[in-house]
Amino acid sequence: MPLALPVAEPQIWLFWALSLIFFAFVLRAISRRERESGGRSDPRSRLGIILQSIGIGLAGIGPFKPMLPWLSLSGLAGDLGVLLLMGGAIAVFASSSTALGKNWSLEARTRSDHQLVRTGPYAVVRHPIYLGMLLFLLGLAVAMGHWLQLLVAVPLFLAGTRVRTTIEDALLKRQFGNEFEDYARTTPALIPRLRA
Fold this sequence. Notes:
62% helix; Four Helix Bundle (Hemerythrin (Met), subunit A); 4 strands; elongated; 196 residues; 6 helices; two-stranded antiparallel sheet; mainly alpha
């Protein structure tokens, strides 16, 4: 089985352009972080960050074949797939990091003045930033035609996400007790519930 399916050049360009926007929001979130004030942190979350990063990297590793005609049905479907996945990644990350405000951090930690955010995307899932990162990974795979790589990339990314969400949930439960338990009981960790 080939490591890459044929793609159209515009879907690759679209991915890179939207990646710049995604990373601009990441830099915005980093620059808006306030200095840590008390609270707790857990450096074990670095393992999760590493696993997630390797998962995303694996989705992009390998050759790509920009051979499809730009206006072919397959080429346009690829463009649309990249646009939807990367647009979703940007929207979810931007709204999530904005909702978190000063609570946002790369590593798992709580602040002494930490707030339990339950609005915006946090009303739908407890860890929407990781959902945005998963959409980014999938957008990368679609842009490059890397379907086979997803067999390793997605489980590795989800393992890293599991490490991070477990640690973050434990920190939040320790700080917010019953309020967090109620939130965790009613709000899924990563994938939104379908409502009728």
